[in-house]
Amino acid sequence: MRIPSMKRSFPVGRNLLIALLGLVLVGCSGETIVSGGASAEDIAAIRSDLADIKGRISSLEAELSEANEGITEANEGITEANQANNGLQGLFLQLPDGSAQFATATPVPIINYDKFGFVIPFPATVEPVASGIGGGEASEESGTLLASAGGVSLLMTWITTDPPLTPQESVLGAFELVSAATGSNFQVTGAGAEGLEVDGEQASYATFAAYDTDGGVDGVAVIGGWICQSSARSYALTVTGGDLDAVSGSFFYFADSFRCAK
User: Is 58 exposed, middle or buried, given 0-12, 13-18 or 19+ CB atoms closer than 10 A?
Assistant: First the structure.
């Protein structure tokens, strides 16, 4: 047997050389005839050498089998790596100039919520819940809208009164509502009546923070209030969460996107 790509040398003993030069075995009569100077002891030694060589060959075959198993495992590892690489490649786009960039994720559709006269957009993955102020069902005259996603919560209230609540009164009312609902001890960190408009209407705003027993910020809130002149309704938009950037970003997104009833 020839073992490809593996070189091994075996000691050839004196006895085996003697056999190759002059040993003649005649089995016709069942007797062993020795010529060329080989004795019975030489023949026995030769057979022992042959047995040893066979053992070495068996050992080599076992080593080759183990090597083949190792190659198979390596090929499986390469296949898994290629599959992972193919998945990773899906995150990139190959540009005409040969460079690559991250593939843009599929954008989430935006749906305009317009059940009560006003319009406010929400990602399709967010489902706002409407209810009446103090219970019951919401209507165009009054109600609340609650939505939450990604650690940020939105609460919008609207009410029709004569005269309408001022933007400042809407902010104060929303603040009292959130404080009662959450049980948090919010403190005012900022307020203003200029610089913020919602669908062209002048709005007031205030920012709040709640602190834990160690003095760390436990939550933040931004509240805006305005009047839609087309319906003479007062609105308040409250966004709360644990991260200031996420809360402020969400607040300005909804404030900029809100549309009064026409």
Answer: exposed
Strand, helix or coil at 150?
coil
Give the other-Cβ count within 10 Å of 66's Cβ: 10
Would you kindly state where each structural domain of the chain is located, as residue ranges? 14-94, 110-257
Query: Which fold would CATH assign to domain 110-257?
Result: Protein Transport Mog1p; Chain A (3.40.1000)
- Taking only the tens place, the pLDDT of each residue in 181-209 is 888 788 999 999 888 999 999 999 999 99
> How many of the other CB atoms lie within 10 Å of CB of 221?
25
Q: How far apart are CA 250 and CA 248, in angstroms?
A: 5
User: What is the predicted pLDDT for the residue at 137?
Assistant: 95
Confidence of residue 10 (pLDDT cuts 50, 70, 90): very low
What DSSP string runs through 222-253? EEEEEEETTTTEEEEEEEEES-HHHHHHHHHH
The more confidently predicted of residues 41 and 18 is 41
- In terms of pTM, does the model score above 0.85? no
Distance separating alpha carbons of residues 96 and 260, to the nearest angstrom: 46
Cα–Cα dist 172/118, whole Å: 22
Question: Can you name the residues that pair with 157 across neighbouring β-strands?
Answer: 144, 236
